[in-house]
Design a protein that fits this description.
elongated; UDP-N-acetyl-D-glucosamine:N-acetylmuramoyl-L-alanyl-D-glutamyl-meso-2,6-diaminopimelyl-D-alanyl-D-alanine-diphosphoundecaprenol 4-beta-N-acetylglucosaminlytransferase activity; 13 helices; 7-stranded parallel sheet; Rossmann fold; undecaprenyldiphospho-muramoylpentapeptide beta-N-acetylglucosaminyltransferase activity; 6-stranded parallel sheet; 2 domains; alpha/beta; single chain; cell cycle; cell division
Length: 359
């Protein structure tokens, strides 16, 4: 039994997969370090579904979204947040953790506020360049604030900010190129272009990729993770083109097979691409459909020489094909920049910070 065998940690975060997958990535390292792990999320959020595979005690609390804009729910959600705070106090007294790790999302706010009242130390992790509202509300009482981007350090308290990167699921690096080709039915040795549209899909990206297939398939095999109910049934038998709605266990093999990747610019996704050394094109969500964090994430990766970026509003078949060809031709340059980066998986760094804070 390790020296931390009696340590207890509560993980919290939810509302989207991006607020959960880094917590999941930490689980094997925390277990190895001897931590007993608990999770607090919402009653029925995505975090509950994602965590259930990991045999960790899960507790749901009431949660409400804190909005900067008018919505009728603004009148009822504060009461839900207060209920979540009361439930968090009860749960934390029962669990009696040594420390809490918060990945953000609105479910985390009542948990860390309760931790502050009870004198339980907590660490916050911010994925995006600019902190989201939930993390802004959580930072004041945090012992340390971990982040992914050098630019974020200027926006955080200097005595708390640590540039760690994001935890990456260890299994993603253990894939097989050969297994990936078998899964997709690719029988020739053309390079592989992987397109990831996110868990809900990216309609503009999906459509543009499909329009471009006649120009792409002579050069590449294309594997396309297109999102729930976003498959194109008319293209199910196109040689060299394989679609998936969603990929779980096979993802490691598809990544191992991919030579270059086209992706949205969610912070966790692009940090995975960096850790796996995959030259990439980022097509960030525009400010019309997000708070602009993906555009900032993409700009940072472009400036660091890890990525090429296409503005979603300018995306068309010609730009996509030309940028893919440019990326593939210059892929060694992008690989060299990625290999020089100190931002790899943050798992070990974060476990070290947790250990230090509960000494």
């Amino acid at each position: 039994m390790s020296e931390n065998a009696n340590k207890r940690i509560v993980l919290t975060g939810g509302g989207s997969a991006g607020h959960v997958t880094p917590n999941i990535a930490l689980i094997p390292a925390l277990k190895k370090a001897g931590y007993e792990i608990f999770y607090i999320g919402s009653y029925e959020g995505i975090e509950k579904k994602l965590i259930e595979d990991y045999n960790i005690p899960y507790f749901g609390i009431a949660t409400g979204k804190l909005r900067r804009y008018f919505d009728p729910k603004n009148f009822s959600d504060p009461f839900r947040v207060m209920k979540g705070f009361t439930e968090s106090i009860t749960l934390l007294k029962r669990i009696n953790p040594d420390i809490i790790f918060s990945k953000g999302g609105f479910v985390s706010v009542p948990v860390v506020r309760a931790a502050k009242v009870l004198g339980i130390p907590y660490i916050v992790h911010e994925s995006d360049i600019t902190p989201g509202l939930a993390n802004k509300l959580s930072m004041k009482g945090a012992r340390k604030i971990c982040c992914n981007f050098p630019e974020t350090m200027r926006l955080l308290p200097a005595d708390k900010a640590i540039l760690t990167g994001t935890p990456i699921r260890e299994e993603l690096g253990n894939g097989s190129r050969e297994e990936g080709r078998k899964i997709c039915g690719f029988t020739d040795d053309k390079p592989v272009l992987m397109v990831i549209g996110g868990s809900l899909g990216a309609q503009s990206v999906n459509e543009t990729v499909r329009f471009a297939l006649p120009r792409l398939l002579p050069q590449f095999n294309v594997v396309h993770i297109c999102g729930k109910e976003k498959m194109d049934n008319l293209k199910l038998s196109v040689p060299g083109y394989k679609q998936f709605e969603y990929v779980k266990n096979e993802l490691k093999d598809l990544f191992a097979m991919a030579d270059i990747v086209v992706s949205r610019a969610g912070a966790n996704s692009i940090c995975e691409l960096l850790a796996l050394k995959k030259p990439n094109i980022l097509i960030p969500l525009s400010t019309k459909s997000s708070r602009g964090d993906q555009m900032l994430n993409a700009k940072s990766f472009e400036q660091q020489g890890f990525s090429l970026v296409i503005d979603n509003d300018e995306l068309d078949e010609d730009i996509l094909v030309e940028t893919i060809e440019d990326l593939y031709e210059n892929r060694d340059k992008f690989l060299a920049n990625m290999n020089k980066s100190s931002l790899q998986s943050a798992t070990d760094a974060i476990v070290k910070i947790l250990n230090e804070e509960i000494q």
